[in-house]
Amino acid sequence: MRYTVNIFFLLLSLMSEANNYDIRVLSNKDGLSNSSVNVVFQDSNKLMWFGTWDGLNMYNGKEFRVYKPSTGNAESISNNIIRDIIEEKKDILWIATDFGINRLNIRENKFERFFVDSLHREVTNEHSYLIAGNRSGRIIASVYQQGIYFFHSINNRFEPLDIDEPLNIRKIIIDDKDQLWILTKEKLLFKIALRQHEDQLIVTDID
After folding, report:
1. Strand blocks (E) in the chain
2. Percent of the chain, pLDDT > 90?
3. What angle do CA 152, 169, 1 make, to 5 degrees?
4. pLDDT tens, 137-164?
5. What is the pLDDT of the chain when averaged over all its residues?
6. Do residue 25 and residue 107 come from a single domain?
7. What is d(CA 104, CA 82) in angstroms, rounded to the nearest whole number?
8. Rounded to an integer, what distance in angstroms lies between the CA atom of residue 60 and that of residue 189?
9. Quick one: 115 and 188 in the same domain?
10. What is d(CA 35, CA 5) in angstroms, rounded to the nearest whole number?
11. Which residues lie closer than 8 Å to 83 by C-beta, 6 or more apart?
């Protein structure tokens, strides 16, 4: 869903022990790349991230930094339409776009791209690339009409999960028990139990 807003939020002052709040309205005039915001996320560094229709925006409390694709630079973000943002661990974010999934190393300021050649641009939509993660760092991805994948951290790539049922997926969530929850276009909810076996993630049950 698309929202056209001025970003309006509370920043807790880290300089004072008192309960003082700094209320600010942030807009294009402050450096926000686009006022149509799809997702807002705060990472463990207390940085604010805004996924817009024209770039990924990071706000550090003073100014914005905008990330957009750069022609010829494979370490830039793959697309300017940002759909979702999650955190794998400190300084590592995952970003779902309309053209692939990206892993951002904040300290190195580098993106790794995944699935960028998997779909034709004309068939992409807000549900084409979905991401989910839990507190143990498990990362799951869904790619439209292709399947569900888990991130293999040793091989640094996504591996497919063996799920036979064709699902028209709208949302995925993985909880801290490694249970994958899937909401479909038909408003059906599936719970998929996962288990680590050696270096693979296997499906043990589907409800």
Report:
1. 3-4, 7-12, 21-26, 36-42, 48-52, 55-59, 64-67, 82-89, 92-97, 100-105, 110-114, 129-133, 139-143, 147-152, 157-160, 169-174, 179-184, 189-197, 200-206
2. 66
3. 110
4. 999 999 998 899 999 999 999 999 988 7
5. 87
6. yes
7. 13
8. 37
9. no
10. 6
11. 38, 39, 51, 96, 97, 98, 126, 129, 130
158 DSSP β-pair partners: 151
Residue 58 phi/psi, 5° resolution?
A: -110, 130
Question: In this model, does residue 1 exceed pLDDT 90?
Answer: no
- Structural domain including 166 reads 127-207
Give the number of domains in the chain.
2
CA-to-CA separations, 34 to 12, 58, 103, 146, 169, in angstroms, rounded: 24, 12, 22, 31, 28
Q: Which residue in 112, 126, 137 sits closest to 185, CA to CA?
A: 126
pTM metric for this prediction: 0.86
Which residue's entry shows tokens 């479909």? 184
Residue type, 111: F
